[in-house]
Each structure stands twice: as C-alpha cells, then as structure tokens.
Amino acid sequence: MATVWSGCSTSCGSFCQELPPRGKRGGGDGTRFRPRSGGQRRVDARQIQASGPAMVTTGACICRASPCVLESEVAGKEDADVAVWGLDGDPRGADGHDGGKRRGLRRRPVRPPTVGYKGGVGAGSAPPAMAAERDRKSEHGESRLHFLEERDEETLSRRLIKLSQSNKVRSATDLFDSMRASGLQPSAHACNSLLSCYVRRSSLADAMRMYEFMKGKRMATGHTYTLILKAVANNEGYASALEMFNEIEEQEDSKKIVDVIVYNTMISVCGRAKDWMLVERLWRSLKESSLSGTLLTYDLLVSIFVQCGQSELAIAAYQEMLQNGLDPSEDIMKAIIASCTKEGKWEFALATFSRMLSAGMETNIILFNSMINALGKAGQDELAFRMYHLLTSSGLKPDQYTWSALLSALYKSGRSWDVLELFHGIKAKHLTLLNDHLYNIALMSCERLGQWEHGLQLLWMMEKSGLKISAVSYNHVIGACEVASKPKVALKVYQRMINQRCSPDTFTHLSVIRACIWGSLWNEVEDILEEVAPDSSIYNAVIHGLCLQGKIGLANKVYTKMRSMGLVPDGKTRAFMLQHIATE
Questions:
Q1: Mean pLDDT, the chain, as a whole number?
Q2: How many whole angstroms separate alpha carbon 144 and alpha carbon 209?
Q3: Residue range of the domain that includes 363
Q4: End-to-end CA distance of the chain
Q5: Which GO molecular function annotations are given, in alphabetical order (predicted)?
Q6: Is residue 163 part of a domain?
Q7: CA distance 349 to 354
Q8: Which of 354, 375, 308, 300 is nearest to 331 (CA)?
Q9: What is the pLDDT at residue 37?
Q10: Residue 405 counted as domain residue
Q11: Per-residue pLDDT, 113
Q12: Is residue 299 part of a domain?
C-alpha cells in the first residue's frame, strides 16, 4: 500500500489516507497515475473515489519513494547547510521544483496537529521500529527523520562521510537515523566517520550508541575500537578505557579485529597516566597476539619507559625495534643514550651514537654531554676527551655540564692531579662557567691527594665569588686535613663552618673526630661528642679510634655512655670491648 504523507516535500495538500494498489502499466484493475509537469504525479479525486472509500483532496501529490515516515513535531532550529540536495548538487528552480530530478535528503515540514493521528499506530503512522527510532535523542537534541528519495546506500554513505568530516554532527545524525528508519545500511566507513565526529565533539553518549550499533551489526573495525577507547579515556579516565579494552579482548569475534593500532592507542593512554606496568603488560600482550609493533609502538614504549625511569625496559624495547628492522627516530636514540648513561652501558650508548652519526642525524650539546658522562662513569676518560674534541669540531661550545662530565671522568680514572689542572684551566678561560659542582669535584681531588692547603684556597675562592658553600664542600676540606694529619686545621675549618651557619652532618662529625683522634686531641673529641646528637655511627667510630690508639679506658667510658643512651654498638665495637675484657 502506498502511503500519502502530508509532510512530504512533494505534497500539495494536507491529508493522510491510504490509496488503493497501483495497477500495472498498460491497464489492469488498479488505477494508473500519470505524471504531470514538474515531475510530480497529480491524482484525480474522481479516480480515487471510484476505486475505494478513501477521500483525497483534489490536486494532492503522492510521494515517489517509500516508505514515508511520520515524525512528531521537531523543536529547535534546523541546520542551514542540510537543505534540499540534488544528486549533482543542482539548485532548485524558481517554482520550487527540480525538474523531476531525484533528491537525496529533504527537510520534512512539521506535521500539522489537525491530522487524525492520536499517538497510536494506524493509517499513515510509522511502524513500531520507526517510532522507537523517532524517540531516540542525542546530546545535540532530538533526532529528526527525513524522507529519503535517494535509495542507494553507497551514495548516502558518501554523504554521511562528507557531513561527518565537516563536523556537521546534527545533520550527519539526522541522515544516519533516516537511513536506519528507511531500512538502509550505512557503510562501516560512514559509521566510523560519524563516530569520529562524535569523539571530536566530546559526545560520549552518542559515540557509545554508535559503537553499540556497529558492534551489534558486526561492522566494528580496528578503527572503531581505537576511536571509542580514545573517547572513553578522555571522558572517564584510562582505567575505564582499559576495562573496555579487556572486554574487547575477551570476545572471540572482536579479538580477531583488534590490530596494532588499537594497542598503540591503549599504550598511549596508559603512558599519559605514567602507568608503566600496564604499558609493559600491553607490550607483552601485543607479542602474544602475534602482532608486530610499528615504529609508533616502539616510540611510545621507549618514551614512556624513559619518562618513568625504567631504563632497562626502554633499552629492551629499542633492541626489539632494531631486531624487527625498524629505523628509530632521532628522539628515541637520544633517549636511549640517556638510559644507557644511567645504566652504565657505555658501549651500547657509543654504538647508538655512531648509528646517529652514520644516519646524518643532527647532534646537540645535550647529546654530547650525555655521551661524555656515560664514558666518564665507566672510567673511559680517553674516549670521553675524544668525544669532547668531536664536540668542539662540530662547532658547539662546552657548557657547565660538559666540564663537569670531563672532570668526573678524570676523577673516576684516578687522575686527581689532572682534575686540578683542568679546573684551573677552566677558571682561566671560562670563569663564568664555574659553579659549586665544579668546585666540589676539585675539592674531592684535594681530599684524595691530602692537599689541604689547595683545598683551603678553593674554599676561599668560593666564598669570594659569592657561591653558597654547602656541608659537602666543607667535608672535603676537613677530609683533606684528615688525610694530611692536620687535626688542628680540621678543627678550624669545622669552627668556620659553624660560624657560617652551615649545619654539619654525620660525615662532618666523623671526619673531624677521626682527625682529632689521630692527632691525640682527646679533649676536643669529648667536646664534639657533647655537641652532637646521639648517633650510633659516631660513637662506634670514636670507640674504634680510641681502641686502636690504646685509649682503652676512655673507650670504655664512651661505650658506657653509648649504652646508657640506648644506642646499639656494631659488631666491631663489641669485638673491641670483648677483647678489652679478656685482657683484664
């Protein structure tokens, strides 16, 4: 049965009645309708009256496509860009007609309330499925259904893609719902485009409805899962996205569709949350699924592991990347060199650096400093200085980190005199680059060499230059005095430290006490013990020194005081005390 719809764009009257069946061409029992000008079909009222009881207004028009859909009144403003379309985009004529051309999507006018539709399903009403579709509401307002003259699913899907890509979400939603109400199936590409539009507009409810529709129709693709996981992660957090991902993996049908891009999405989501354990689990699951990681996969893995301080995992991901024949990016290789520096894998770092140079990648001062630092920590001072010469030949200027790495390399290799020589060279040519860290490396060399006079000179230079002197700097000078057996000088440095309101730490007290014990300054030792807070390590060190110097009585006195304060002696202290008791 053909349905006459008052809201159809081809109607000329206002009615809603059923017409008798159309007869065959060339005659028959039915009534034959002939098209008139403008591509419309006009109905003679007398023909209709003769064929049945239905009453029709004279001059009414019949829709040329079916089914026509009745819809409740639509409130709100319509999108101006979704109007009447021609197949070729031709405009309508001045009389409102299109010359008989079929059109794809028409705005349907609101059905007048005077029509005999009372909410039930009767003549001229939409089927129950269409009524349910009519009641669907999106985040952008009530869904509106339209009369579709175009019946080709591929053509309508292309139009849906174009609307979605233009972010015309209201118009795209109307077209999608109209296709479904007309029994037409949009393509998977069109559905993904509309889903992507919802995600861009942060319409999670609409995105979830589209996802459920595609999943129910078995139209979901890897891109579908990628889009919906991103939407859930952005709106509800990575935990909800991970829960959905686990559900997808548990389903046998969807598990086959999940590709490496979906894994990349979840790795990125968990990486933003700094949850490296979940990232590692996803990485293992990717390999168990017999999927090969892409360049983006390993870029994400290395970056996340480096940011989370998991250098070993970062290096493992990089090695797997090379085994799969992928060329790492410049940023990844720089991150790997930094990780190798932290893990002490200088050979791997050097090989990675050579790979960068061979590939013609751009180097910078940070990369050179990282390499010098890695070589210096490994005691490869000669290679570190070769890297320094390569740095200068590349037109780069060394900075504070460069000199720090070089001084550390020399100190690590036991070349303390060379440290002092290089430090004074820096002082002569790059005075503005000197900082407390460079001074401390030089003071460490003074302590190792017992150069207490040199240490005092450097300490005075630090005060003169306005640098803030820390307890570490004072400790190195006191340590140099201890090595040189200058207990009185060590005490003066200790007093200077207190006068400068620099709080001594445990290492300070241990060093100055050892210096006083070896200098037989017993009264000073007792005075320092009265000043310091109770500390087992300090009392143990005093007892050890006193016993070694033969001051058993004083050692016993300190031991008794130690026990009275509830401090616990170590094994060496107990051994000394037992030996003292045995000899008595």
A1: 79
A2: 16
A3: 355-434
A4: 123
A5: mRNA binding
A6: no
A7: 9
A8: 300
A9: 41
A10: yes
A11: 44
A12: no
